[in-house]
Amino acid sequence: MTMPNFLIIGAPKSSTTSLAQYLGQHPEVYISPKKEPYFFAFENEQVDFLCPGIQGKDHIINSAVVVDIEEYRRLFQGVSGEVAIGEASTLYLAFPKAAERIKYHIPDVKLIAILRYPADRAYSAFMHALRDNYESINEFSRALAAEEERIKLNWGHLWRYQDQGLYYRQLKRYFWLFDSHQIKVYLYEDLVNNRAGLLRDVFDFIGVDQDFIPDTSAKYNVTGIPKNQLLHEFLSKPNLITTSVKHLIPRPLRLKLINDIRNSNLSKPQLTQPLRQQLISIYREDILNLQELIQRDLSAWLK
Fold this sequence. Notes:
Layout: E1 6-10, H1 16-24, E2 29-31, H2 39-42, H3 61-64, H4 69-74, E3 84-88, H5 91-94, H6 98-105, E4 110-115, H7 118-131, H8 140-152, H9 167-177, E5 183-187, H10 188-193, H11 195-206, E6 225-226, H12 229-236, H13 240-244, H14 251-264, E7 266-267, H15 273-294
Helix pairs in contact: 9-15, 12-14
Keywords: Transferase
InterPro entries: NST/OST (IPR037359), P-loop_NTPase (IPR027417)
Protein name: Sulfotransferase
């Protein structure tokens, strides 16, 4: 059965969802209908992450993860002649076992990573958790202070706000195991400032027609604090109204409309300067090592 020949491996909160959506529009590209199956992170494992303190909330990864290879292969049973076959699981970058499992199962795979300024990525992950009511602490500084203890208690990776921004530590495993021509590392700024150019480069990397122009007007999985929590929950879950319009509005238009309304309902408090400086000091050495590894000037990340 079919296995992917490219993977988007991370980082979380770096527009990986948007990238997967844009790539999936290409007629020569097949993207797994299940985003983030996490197979290579947890193959044949019992996944039991905790997130105590949030009433009625168990970490969604425990039920969403695919650990059986046959179930994973079934995610690609819809392939019908596409050249590039892929999926996006952002934990592959941070999870130590993923790189070795990917190398074992699909050694010739193409690997794509997008890296976001780590202080902003950490804060965006915190805002994501607040947005979806997965975070019981409403101050970022206190959530950062709780992170070490949460890791010891086996909380899921969503709450490892600071830890997941140590990109050099994560990426070097891939550069040890794979030939550098199999790895493409982009910066979040690349997608923001030159979306068309980045997509052309990705299309070339995965071996499909570079001239295809996807619709990139929508932004997916945007984070922030819901202005109206009831509206956010209404749009985020299946309900009688959203289900009833399925036959009236084509799926792409319907999803874009819901996504746009959801995004407009979010406010985005800014990361405070003292916390930004605190995180920069923590990330400094990793950033300096990273820019040597990927041969990109990251001095702006240290300001």
